Structures are given as C-alpha cells and as structure tokens.
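[Discussion] Sanity-checking designs against the backbone

I'm trying to build intuition for which residues belong where. Below is a structure token string of 377 positions. I'd appreciate it if someone posts a full sequence so I can compare it with mine line by line.
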C-alpha cells in the first residue's frame, strides 16, 4: 500500500513542476531589460544586437523557446548562462546550491534542537515564570529583522567575543548548579521522585562542556565560507556557517517554540493523557512518549516549509556574510541581467526540492499517525 501511495504522490508533482516552470518563463517576459543588451553593452550596433539575439534564440516564438528549454531539462541540460559566456547554468548551481543547502540544513537542525525542548518544557510549565520569560523572548526575536540580527551577531561574536563567552560560562555553571540541586532534592527526599543520578551525570556533562567551549572558543568568520571539501576541513566550514545559520534560525526557533507549545498544551488535555497519568506513568514518559509525538504534525509541516524557504535563497543574509549561495546567484546572475536560463534553472532546482520536501512530509504522516494508515485500508 505504501509504495503505491508514494508513487501517486510523486506522479502529482509532474503537473506542479510544469505549471511552475511555465509560469516563471511567462513572467520573465514582463521583466524590463534585454539579455542581448546585457551581453553586448549599450555601445553595440544593431547588427551585433540581432546576431546575439539569434545566437541566444531570443527571436524565436515564446512556446518554441519554452519547449526547447524544457526538452533540454528533461535530458539534464539546463542550458548556458546567456550573459556570462562560457559557463553553464548547471555549473553555477553546483557552486551555489551546496552553500545554501548546508546553510538551510544547519539552520533547521539548530532550530529544532532548541525549539523542541523549549516547547515541551514551556507547555508542561504553562503560566509559570520560565514560560513567561520564554514567551516574551520569542516575541522579541520574531520582531527583529534578519539583517539587524546578522549585524548584531557579527558585532558580538566576531568583534567582541568576550561579551558572549563570559555570560555563557556563567549560564552553564548556573545550569549545572540547578541540576545538582535537583539531584540533592532526590537524595534527601525520596518522595521527590526516582533516583536523581540522571541529574548528577547531566550536571557533570554540562560543566565539562561549558569549560571546554569557554577555553576553546572558536574564531568566527565575518564574511565568506570555507567549503567542506577545502583544505581547512569541516571544522573551519562549521565556524564559517555558524553565524549565518544562527541568524536564520532565530526566527524559526521563536515560531517553532510557540507552535509546539500551543499544540502540546492542547494534547496534554486529551483523554489518553489523563489515562496515562491515572496509570501512574512518570511525567517525562508522558511528555516524550505520549504527548510529543501527536503534537509534531504542525511542527513537521512548518519546518518543511521553512526549509524550502531557506533553500529558496536567503538573499539578505547571504549578502551580509558574502556567502554566494542560491539567492545571490539567482538575483545577481539571473534577475539583474534578465538571464532566462539562470532563473529557470534555479527555479527548477528549488521547486523540485520544495515539492519533494512537502511530499516527504505528507508521507511521514502515515508513519507518525497510525490512524491514517488504518483509514486507507
């Protein structure tokens, strides 16, 4: 049943991709400018202008040009860059797409790793002091534009790292002290819960990690990115991608936390949660084994949409950090010069990634919710 479902969903992508590419090709005709003039410059003669238009196939009818391009795409040929002679669109995408893909992956992973624990904790402690602090913080983060967040992170992490290092040390040690306090509570009062050895081990891990990171605080890059395949290796690459990824993830963390908190609060009111509590299950088991799973549907959908948006190109952040990803490639090499092949090639790649992500999310629902699998039998 599942292979048939996957095949049907993938088949539906064909008309979607056709409409996306056809609509993009049509809208490019409305953009002012001429690739032939961008290629030749303003001092070209009429004869040179007509020759270039013929060479670039710009004088052919609209549908003929579109289907010629589409036929090339189906064979894996995205065409040549019209303005930057000697370079294919595929070569440009191969240079730009890995940067954007890594940036999007790191941003989404950072967002989920931080927002899921925050969402679960604030939902289970709704109305308490920490919940109010987190709620106020995420609302403030949402209101900060991405370019402002980028400049602030550069100011603190690149030019004034000690402003971040020492508060990080204090917060890490304070967290470890709180964990030790929880361990002590369970040690002197067994009615507080099961053995608190978990808190003791976690406190030791937090102290070790805090001291290690404080002493080995990395040097973050202001602009540019070192690729994973370069001689510097993955460590240098992650240092370069950290700040732009953090810039992008701040907004996602705020949105994901609020969404998961809301869904978790609703789930915790369900009858099966009350039944689990009546059976005497621990709060941690109820939260992570019974309440979290059905609360993830909206978060999974939103994270896929956010990932697709990040893959689509984060032009402002890429410009601030001079990364040279897909956003910069499409704007500088495609839209600014009215290079049809660059824009269409980029749209095909980005649209394909976006619709495949949403299809995977749709399919994943069948694994997360057994009611959907039973409903299709």
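Best answer:
Here's mine. Compare freely.
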């Amino acid at each position: 049943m599942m292979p048939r479902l996957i095949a049907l969903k993938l088949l539906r992508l064909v008309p979607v991709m056709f409409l996306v590419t056809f609509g993009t090709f049509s809208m490019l005709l409305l953009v002012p400018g001429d690739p032939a003039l961008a290629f030749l410059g303003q001092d070209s003669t009429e004869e040179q202008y007509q020759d270039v238009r013929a060479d670039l196939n710009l004088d052919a009818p609209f549908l003929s040009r579109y289907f010629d391009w589409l036929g090339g795409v189906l064979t894996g040929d995205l065409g040549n860059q019209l303005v930057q002679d000697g370079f294919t669109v595929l070569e440009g995408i191969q240079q730009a797409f890995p940067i954007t893909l890594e940036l999007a992956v790191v941003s989404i992973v950072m967002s989920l790793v931080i927002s899921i624990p925050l969402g679960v904790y604030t939902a289970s402690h709704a109305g308490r002091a920490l919940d109010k602090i987190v709620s106020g913080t995420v609302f403030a983060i949402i209101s900060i534009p991405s370019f402002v967040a980028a400049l602030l992170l550069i100011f603190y992490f690149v030019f004034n790292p000690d402003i971040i290092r020492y508060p990080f040390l204090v917060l890490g040690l304070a967290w470890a002290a709180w964990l030790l306090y929880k361990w002590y509570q369970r040690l002197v009062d067994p009615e507080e819960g099961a053995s608190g050895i978990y808190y003791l081990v976690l406190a030791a891990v937090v102290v070790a990690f805090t001291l290690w990171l404080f002493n080995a605080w990395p040097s973050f890059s202001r602009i540019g990115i070192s690729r994973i395949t370069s001689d510097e290796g993955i460590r240098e690459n992650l240092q370069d991608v950290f700040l732009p990824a953090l810039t992008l993830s701040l907004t996602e963390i705020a949105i994901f936390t609020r969404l998961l908190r809301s869904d978790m609060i609703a789930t915790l009111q369900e009858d099966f949660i009350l039944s689990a509590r009546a059976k005497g299950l621990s709060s941690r088991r109820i939260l992570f084994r019974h309440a979290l799973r059905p609360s993830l549907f909206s978060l999974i959908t939103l994270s896929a949409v956010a990932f697709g948006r990040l893959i689509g190109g984060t032009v402002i952040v890429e410009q601030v950090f001079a990364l040279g990803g897909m956003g910069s490639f499409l704007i500088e090499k495609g839209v600014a010069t009215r290079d049809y092949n660059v824009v269409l090639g980029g749209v095909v790649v980005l649209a394909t990634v976006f619709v495949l992500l949403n299809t995977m999310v749709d399919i994943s629902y069948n694994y997360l919710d057994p009611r959907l699998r039973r409903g299709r039998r």
